[in-house]
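QA checklist item 7 of 12: single-chain prediction sanity check.
[x] sequence parsed
[x] length recorded as 662
[x] structure emitted
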Amino acid sequence: MNNYGFIRTASAVPAVKVGDVGYNVEEICRIAGEAFQKEVSLIVFPELSLTGHSCGDLFHTSTLVGGAEDGIRTILEFSRGKAMTMIVGAPVPYRSRLYDCAVVIRNGNIAGIVPKTYIPSAETRWFASGGDFLSQDVRNDGAFLRNGKDTVLSGFCGEIRYAGQKCNISPNMLFGIGGYTVAVELGDDLWAPVPPSSLHALQGAQIIANLSADKEILMREKYRKDLLSQHSARTACGYIYASAGFGESSQDYVYAGAASIWECGDALAENERYMTTSSLIVADLDVERLENLRRKSGTFKSIAPDGTDAGTYYRSYNRISLGEPCETDFEKTLCRYVEPHPFVPSEDLDYRCREILSMQAIALARRLSHINCRTAVLGISGGLDSTLALIVTVMAFDKLGWEHDRIVAVTMPGFGTTSRTKNNAWYLMEALGVTCREISIVPSVTQHFRDIGHDPADHNATYENSQARERTQILMDIANQTNGIVVGTGDLSELALGWATYNGDHMSMYAVNADIPKTLVRSLVKWAAENMYEDIRKILLDIVDTPISPELLPANDKGEIQQVTEDLVGPYELHDFFIYHFMRNGYSAEKIFFLAKKAFRHHYDDETVMKWLRTFIRRFFNQQFKRSCMPDGPKVGTVGLSPRGDWAMPSDAWSTMFSKNI
């Protein structure tokens, strides 16, 4: 069964009775049983979940502390025979001190006990700091202890007999679940200037579990979510957060029972707070994504695992293997949302569009001012890409305080130009107040066909590319004529697929759209229509609705576009999905296919997805030579194809290394 790099995790908030260990253990086991039925491999409970966090001076009684140890015995018995790791909170005594701990349990065994390091001043009345175990430097051999049964200690730790078992107690512990590595911190550890999880991540922990008992005050939730988002993004980890909830004493504080699961800044699952019953949330963490992002990050390569940049020594860690994760059928159910349009998420779309257009415009303004040119020259087809490029150019001129008539917009009708696109091109140019020119390429291309001996009835690549190159030649020459530069219109999706004529529309003097995928181009033009240009709103929206086409083949008998790009190379929404997950996340073709089936299950059947995925792979690898000499253009997102930093790939790499499993 293929896990595709996923592991199913859960965060649980049981309703508790303060000091009633028997009741709390029963509720923990009930929720864990529910999670096991959902094929969860790792479940995290709140801080001190066996006793309740708000027990106060009851933590000074042997009845409560001993009862918690007995409760762990009950949970150990419950866990036998289950390939699920449970992390529960309990007060653990050690050498005349009491520690606020996370007890890691797997299949009847205590794999390790992790004490809280940063103790709030109010809690020092009861608990000592786990920093006690970091007072000696013992070198770590880097090996995982087998099934938690080895008695030889390596690293910062103590050895304890607890609930009838001998195990290690230390803040510096890493737990292996198959190929996944988990570490633990508790409550205020996250809020420290340097959280222990930062060092855990540098040591290889991909998943952090936080057992917490956060007290709610006004705006605390927003602050906490911002912190969880930023911390999981900064450490490129999966972060499972579980905080104490209903049943905790409300004598002085409110416990809202917040639970959430994060992945590299993104919230995969969140519960409803202020519930009077227990809650359980489940999410599938993509550890493969996290590992790929870390390998690409300069931070993880330049900072040593001990948190220094010099790497003078390595903090010792105990590494304990827990066995394989639960067998989870991710094909049947994937507990995470797969965004079908990763370049155009609905969240913060207004901000994203405004920011991207501003970045494009200021980049072009910088280039224009630097070379002190007189004009910017663009080819306007009435399609999406040239419309966006013209909007950006107008914005750049406005920033520079230049008149719009210094923008030379040229429409160049050819054999396939339709009245719809030609009219829209003219409406757009005139409305924006730019210098408008129309130059038909039909006479010059017809002469060219005669010169090279090509039959105009043969609508092959020569027929199409001759038109594209003629248009580019016209723009280049007009730029020379007017002391200007040619502003390119091609987008990232076309570059990825090689859907551009080499030394034709492939070439310009500055390519403002080179980092913008087609799905985003459409959204940007639509946003501009609705937020910037009320007077030409209808024109822009009609351009958005026009079928995407290079219009290099003659129109049909009704004068309509015959050459529809997405019929030839496939839907751009699919290709943009493939581009994002291949380039940003480094996924295999097999995993991209799996995710695409989930994302587009209501729109395309599996055969269609596979057909266009194979097309993407073939074209992406075969067309690298075009990207190797692409012009300058501004980077605006996390995915780019510039050979000067974003994507360095040999032009003769074999696509089979990527597609062998499909």
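[x] summary fact logged: The chain has two domains: 8-323, 349-565+625-636.
[ ] second reviewer sign-off
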